[in-house]
Every structure is written in structure tokens, then in C-alpha cells.
Amino acid sequence: MSTISIYAEASPNPESMKFVLNQQLLTDGVSVDYPNLEAAANSPLAQELFNFDYVGRVFIAQNFVTVTKTTEHQWAQLIPEIRTFLKSYVEAGGPIFTVDPAAEQKAAQTAAATGNASEQDQQTSQKIIDLLDNYVRPAVEQDGGNITFKSYNAGIVTVNLQGSCSGCPSATVTLKSGIENLLKRMVPEVTEVVAEGITV
């Protein structure tokens, strides 16, 4: 059995902390965001984390778990407890997911890109998904979150903010000055980017 090492890394969102493991939890490019216990039905690990009364949101990606807290507790008190829990859970071989989210996520993205859209819009949606995957995701994952494609309609791109990006004070700035500018430059049809999942 391999020894799991975990370190905590601050994110731009002061309420979110990224716990990085030396073990893969998900295939690269796949991530899941659980805004509450009900949403975490597919993840025994996330359900266990929600048992801590200060855990408000759980985001799981390739080799890290981002925990967003709900209370006034300081991270200095919470980090050792969460790190100890994650280490013992993963070392004991506890299940991360009941069903691998990779296929589910791919199907959802394809459905979002195609839907009732025209062929032109489908091509535009696919370009946007590729740009988000290749340019945006690696950067926001470093900050403990993710931005996923939700829909494209009449020049407006709707994205979902996940993990530490949801509720992050700088998320709106990143969205408008970074992502919107990138997409407008690379996909001329795009006129605006709006986000779901911003909690303030």
C-alpha cells in the first residue's frame, strides 16, 4: 500500500482550500463539483467530507480536493483535521466515486454542445469547449476550481463556476477580463460570457 502525502494550498477564494494528493483521483480533464450533500450521491468521499459541519462545498479533480468552508473557523484549525481524514480515507482504499464521472461528464458536455442547436452553433460550441479545456481549465485548476461550458446561444456563452471559483472575489474579473477576452479573440461569434455558480 502506497503512503499518501497531502499538502494544503491556498486558493484565491479565502473560503476555499485545495488539498493536493500524490495520487490520482480522476482522469485528467475530469472534475466534479458538489455544492451540497444531496449533489454528492455519486461520491462517498464527498459525503464523508460533508459530515464535517464546516464543509459547504466539495470539488474533486485529477489529484486534489478543494473544500469550501461555511463557518468563521480559521483554516489553521481545519487543515490538520481535513488532511488527516483524507489521508486515512484514501490509504484505506475508501471509494471516491460509485460511478466514474468521466463518461457522465463527456455525455453532458456533448448534450450541451449539440442540444437543439444549429450545425453552425454546434461547431462554435465545440470550439469554445476546446478552448476552455486547453487554455482555461489548467489555469483555474491551479487555483482549486474549474470553469465548464454550459451553453452557447446567439453569441452568449454560459459557463459554470466550480470549486473555489464559485464564491471567489476575483471570479468575475477573471471571467470578464480573461475568459471573455480569450473567447472573443479566438471565436469571433462570441459577444459575451456569463456565469452560473457565482455565490457571494
From TrEMBL:
Residues 6-93 form the Scaffold protein Nfu/NifU N-terminal domain. InterPro entries: FSCA_dom_sf (IPR034904), Nfu/NifU_N (IPR014824), Nfu/NifU_N_sf (IPR036498), NFU1-like (IPR035433), NIF_FeS_clus_asmbl_NifU_C (IPR001075). GO terms for molecular function: iron ion binding; iron-sulfur cluster binding. One of its GO terms (biological process) is iron-sulfur cluster assembly. It comes from the Bacteria. Belongs to the NifU family. This is NifU family protein.
